[in-house]
Write a structure and sequence with these properties.
Layout (H helix, E strand, L loop, with lengths): L2 E4 L4 E4 L7 E6 L10 H19 L3 E6 L6 H9 L4 H18 L15 H12 L1
Parallel strand pairs: 3-4
Antiparallel strand pairs: 1-2
Helix pairs in contact: 2-3
Length: 130
C-alpha cells in the first residue's frame, strides 16, 4: 500500500488514482537558464522513484515535466551571452537532459516548453481576471 502526504488535508493518505490503473504525474521542471543543481535533482530523483514504483505496481503512468524556457533569468542570460533566447536555453536544456541520463532518471512522456504555450497562458490569465 502506498501512502502519500496530502498537503491539502495535511494527512498521510492511501494513494488512490483518479482513474483505475492509470496515474498522471505533473513535475515542475527546471528553468533552463543555468545548469541544474543538486536541489533541483532531488525533486527529479524522487519523481523517478515514484514513477518506477507505480509502474512496478502495474499502473500505466504518464508524466509531464514542464521546461521554463522564458522568464527574467533566461532573458537576462541570453542578453548577457549576446545570443537569441532559443539558442541560450537550448544549451541548458541539452545539459539538463544529459544530467538526467547520467543520473539514470527515466524520461517523462512529455516536456512542454513554456514558449510553446504562451497563448494558453494568456487565455488563462484573462479568464482568471474575468
Amino acid at each position: 500500500m502506498l501512502r502519500l502526504y496530502n498537503t491539502l488535508t495535511r494527512v498521510k493518505e492511501e494513494f488512490q488514482p483518479i482513474h483505475p490503473g492509470e496515474v498522471r504525474i505533473y513535475t515542475c521542471g527546471p528553468t533552463v537558464y543555468d545548469y541544474a543543481h543538486i536541489g533541483n535533482f532531488r525533486t527529479f530523483v524522487f519523481d523517478d522513484i515514484l514513477r518506477r514504483y507505480l509502474i512496478y505496481k502495474g499502473y500505466r503512468v504518464t508524466q509531464v515535466m514542464n521546461l521554463t524556457d522564458v522568464d527574467d533569468k533566461t532573458i537576462h542570460g541570453a542578453r548577457q551571452a549576446n545570443t537569441s533566447l532559443s539558442e541560450y536555453v537550448k544549451f541548458y536544456t541539452k545539459a539538463f537532459f544529459e544530467d538526467l541520463q547520467t543520473l539514470n532518471i527515466e524520461r517523462a512522456e512529455h516536456y512542454p516548453a513554456a514558449t510553446e504555450h504562451i497563448s494558453e497562458m494568456v487565455a488563462l490569465i484573462q479568464r482568471l481576471l474575468e
